[in-house]
Design goal:
With about 160 residues, the protein is mostly beta strands. The protein has one domain. It has two helices and ten strands; from the N terminus they run αβββαβββββββ. The strands form two sheets. Strands 1, 2, 3, 4, 8, 9 and 10 form a seven-stranded antiparallel β-sheet that branches. The protein is elongated and about 60 Å long. The model has no long low-confidence stretch (mean pLDDT about 80).
Length: about 160
């Protein structure tokens, strides 16, 4: 018998963490500290940080240079190829408004960017420090941005470029 009830934060985290990690996955929890902000709804509800369970994908880049200098027994170093962000909002007051994300530069650090997620009452904004590379927005390439049953799933991979001289 299926129920349509929302899961609690603890149940969501337990469900997400119970999924086995793939070979190229590792946990990811590098938050970017945002400046303190006041919210218009702060006098009615106490703001709280959302819970999350994120993963980072790292893989070997077998470009022509690496193919010449490395082999299967001595692979090239792994590079970050994407992220899977799962942020849980089970207590949202207005469930008709979907959480959104915004990409912002980090001053003085051109290699990284801040990925800010904005949800609404009673949750504070949360940001993560991710690599500053171009995303692959194709669904076939693994891009996913959905908000279902109180959880925002933002999965993306970086574009792979062909090496040309």
């Amino acid at each position: 018998m299926a129920t349509n009830r929302f899961l609690t934060e603890e149940e969501m985290i337990k469900l997400e963490s119970s999924m086995p990690m793939e070979e190229d996955e590792s946990p990811f929890s590098v938050e970017y500290e945002l400046p303190k902000k006041t919210y218009p709804w702060e006098d009615k509800v106490k703001p709280k940080k959302p819970k999350f369970y994120n993963r980072m994908y790292a893989s070997h880049d077998w470009n022509p240079y690496n193919r010449v200098h490395y082999d299967e027994n001595n692979p090239p170093p792994k590079t970050v190829s994407g992220y899977r962000l799962n942020i849980f909002y089970p207590d949202l007051i207005d469930t008709s408004i979907t959480p959104t994300y915004r990409i912002e530069p980090i001053p003085g650090d051109p290699d990284f960017m801040s990925l800010r997620v904005i949800a609404g009452a009673p949750y504070e904004d949360i940001a993560f420090r991710v690599l500053n590379k171009e995303w692959e927005h194709s669904r076939k390439a693994g891009f996913k941005c959905t908000f279902e049953r109180g959880a925002l799933h933002l999965w993306f991979y970086f574009k792979k470029y062909k090496y040309r001289r």
